[in-house]
Amino acid sequence: MQPDKRRTFIDETVTGAIGLAMVTVFLGFMALDIGDTPLIIVTLIVLALVFTDYVQTVKELRKQSENQETGE
User: Domain-by-domain residue ranges, the chain?
Assistant: First the structure.
């Protein structure tokens, strides 16, 4: 039995969003607790990279999901 591709896309998207939120909260609290300006800047850059990777991954999964639905 083949898994539902639409369900896999939704699962990956939701678990990615939860992971993104967890990383943001953890790094945000750590950077603000320490309060060192260079650490805050580096943390913001890392969070921007994580968010960018998440968006690119979701777009790629959506494209794959649509291609599999149309049979291409």
Answer: 10-63
